[in-house]
Amino acid sequence: MLKSCRYFYLLVLGFCTAFDTVSAVAQPAASRMDRLFTIQNIKVDETARSANAARTIAIEKAERIAYDKILEKLTQPEDREKLPALSKEALRTLILGLEIVQEQTSSRRYLGQMNVRFEPTLFSNYLGRHNVPHILSAGKGILILHAHSRGLEQFMWSQDTLLNDARTRVDWSNRIRPYVFPLGALKERLAVTPSMLETAPEDKILEIAADYKLDTVLVINSQWRPLATDGSGGAYVAYSYRLSGSNLTGHGQVTQEGAGEEDHLVKMYENILRDVETSWRQQLIVDTGTGGQMALFITSETLDHYTQVMSRLKTVSLVSDIRITEIAIPLSRISFRYTGNKDQLGLALKFAGLKLRAYGEALILETF
Fold this sequence. Notes:
CATH architecture of the largest domain: 3-Layer(aba) Sandwich
Largest sheet: 6 strands, mixed
Number of domains: 3
CATH topology of the largest domain: Rossmann fold
Order of helices and strands: HHEHHHEEHEEEHEHHEEEHEEHEEHEE
Shape: globular
Number of helices: 12
Structural class: alpha+beta
Radius of gyration: 25 Å
């Protein structure tokens, strides 16, 4: 009995120490939030009476472009109409920092590439004041598996200059979720071939995603087809896609008169990303005018159980003011404030690897 009491004392002491270090364990959450509120790779090219004047104009333009892009990223089109026109000074109060990635100047011209980071709390409060629901959670990455055919040729793991050039023209960085293309390792090539990708079972493609520590795959199949069978000219891209773990599927075709295959592929990617991002935004968008307080149990059979739950909980941007009310074995009690409704909270917790379930008349929070 004395031994078990001593063990309980040491475990509780460990819990208290672990809670102090949870912020360190949860650093990736800060990185995800930084990415969500950062607009990258803004390119500007301005000419003025001097290089310094051109640089000033370019920076102001980059800030305005970043503002438009982050609204497109975080909000729905119909809600943006509620926002007032922002002055240059008012816009800058929402910006935490501007990074100049590269720049070139001449006597009157300035060319630059910049990243603009908005301050998450200030920007969220700004949207909230104008009753604009918006995203507060950045999701995990999505692996893209894309098989493309051109005549009798099929491309997926083999390099194709035209396909690669099309991908470099797509804005993959300023998205709600990061997108990842596989490296094409031998294991991946053996697991899924271009001809079998369209009908490949989900567990097979998820095995590839697991190697990248991802759990979602966007499968794309596309073909470059002639418009007429008699070879009279013209072609288009036909495509289909599906997102694992969801009912999101789609298909379509891109026809651009006078454009080549590369332009068609760029448009195809943009169409698919728009559909995926719209669906994701509808799930994660939060009405900051709603929220509440929640008290519940968390699993704490061991120090590791306790630390996992607490560290993951601190990555959920909808959650704030976490308080420990009781530490015990096998369950501890905590409370926190949350933004949005309970369904939104449940979804945000799910993406953090946590789930809520009934525990008698109470709730318990635990890892998957």
